[in-house]
Write a structure and sequence with these properties.
This protein is α+β, with helices and mostly antiparallel strands. The chain has a single domain (8-346), classed as Catalase core domain (Catalase HpII,  Chain A, domain 1, Beta Barrel), CATH 2.40.180. The protein has 7 helices and 11 strands. The chain has helices at 42-58, 158-166, 168-173, 178-188, 236-245, 302-309, 327-346; strands at 8-9, 34-35, 68-78, 95-105, 119-125, 143-148, 200-201, 206-208, 212-220, 250-258, 287-294. Strands 3, 4, 5, 6, 7, 8, 9, 10 and 11 form a 9-stranded antiparallel β-sheet that branches. Strands 1-2 form a two-stranded antiparallel sheet. Helix 1 (42-58) runs parallel beside helix 7. The longest helix is centred in the C-terminal third of the chain and has 20 residues, at 327-346. The relative contact order is 0.20.
Length: 361
């Protein structure tokens, strides 16, 4: 396996690399690889934090997925009949949990819907965290899942990500970055009329115990899709979400896809999509492990919208057995926490403050 951030080092060599990266104190998962350059990424990590804080402190907003289409109540049910080897951590027992689900645009700017943008779905499963919370950013946190409506990310690692942030146009025009340009083109070409009508992916890998890894996806239970508006309003995604939930419930199947090998399902390269199949009889389908149910509701009161903006979602709000994997995820552990903390301070809001699922507006 190769990576632009440097030569990989196996898990057994971690002790020889004294890294200032805040996730370095965590034991590497058996499918992760530590890169020599990561010991020098403290500056890059701080740059990512500072970049995010320009939005958090200046505008009191998130540095990404700033515009919410709605923050809705729901439930997350872990199915009872999943494969035994998938019953790990959060998925170990059948249960139904209260949840808060936030739909959003990925842009850091508050701009009209329908532009060059991705869509996000953030799920906070109340009291869904597994028993071992030693990696959780918030010790009393719930289980968070963050998914986007595209299966793979635009870059491999935090260094490349910050290079994109500093000068997106120059980065994309560089012939060495054609793969990134191609992924962005696919993302920007999608036309979604309703956040309830598209599939979302985790883009990166997550642990399933000590030896296995998976990626996540949420798939709408209904295959129906609304026509894309000819003359869309600035907030048509929120309007269509509200229109649907005013009269009926919606749901998503929550699925996992298994790690196969580092060639087909790399943990350290989120740019490479984990394919479900190919032309040579290869098959690695997603397996359903749960369901997200969103009942009919109204969600756009000022009080609920303010509450929504004070919720923090972090993939590291999880248990050890389901922790995020890979270079980008290792960086997200500190970056997301520091930016969320700054945003809450800017808005004079308490941090941390996890919802209970019993809120009424």
């Amino acid at each position: 396996m190769s990576c632009r951030s440097g030569a990989p080092i196996g898990s057994q060599d971690l002790a020889a690399v004294a890294s200032p990266n805040p996730s370095a104190s965590l034991p590497l998962h058996k499918l992760e690889k530590w890169f020599e350059s990561e010991e020098n990424e403290t500056q890059i990590t701080q740059e990512a934090i500072d970049f995010g804080k320009t939005f958090a402190m200046g505008k009191g907003t998130r540095d990404a997925h700033t515009k919410a289409h709605g923050c809705v109540k729901g439930t997350f049910t872990v199915n009872p009949n999943i494969s035994e080897d998938l019953k790990v951590g959060f998925f170990a027992k059948a249960a139904t949990y209260k949840s808060w689900i936030r739909f959003s645009n990925s842009s850091p700017e508050l701009k009209p819907d329908g532009g060059r943008d991705a869509l996000g779905m953030a799920i906070k499963v109340i009291n869904g965290n597994s028993a071992d919370k030693s990696v959780a950013i918030l010790p009393n946190s719930s289980q968070d899942f963050l998914v986007v409506n595209h299966p793979n990310f635009i870059v491999e690692n935090i260094r490349e990500y910050m290079a994109v942030q500093k000068d997106p146009q120059a980065y994309i025009k560089n012939p060495l970055h054609l793969a990134t340009a191609g992924i962005l083109l696919k993302i920007f070409s999608k036309k979604t009329a309703n956040p309830l009508e598209t599939q979302y992916w985790s883009m990166a890998a997550y642990a399933l115990g000590d030896n296995k890894a998976v990626t996540y996806t949420t798939v709408p239970c209904s295959s129906e899709t609304s026509p894309y508006p000819e003359s869309p309003s600035e907030n048509f995604l929120s309007e269509n979400l509200a229109k649907t939930l005013a009269t009926k419930a919606a749901c998503f199947e929550f699925k996992v896809q298994r790690f196969v090998n580092i060639q087909r399902t790399p943990v350290e390269n989120p740019m490479q999509e984990w394919k479900e199949k190919d032309l040579f009889n290869y098959s690695n389908p997603f397996e359903t492990v749960g369901r997200i149910t969103i009942p009919a509701q109204k969600f756009n009161s000022p009080g609920q919208e303010k509450f929504c903006e004070n919720i923090s979602y972090n993939p590291w709000n999880t248990g050890m057995e389901n922790r995020p994997l890979g270079n980008l995820n290792r960086t997200r552990r500190s970056v997301y926490k520091e930016i969320a903390k700054a945003r809450h301070e800017s808005n004079s809001a308490p941090f941390p403050a996890e919802p209970t699922g019993n809120e009424v507006f």
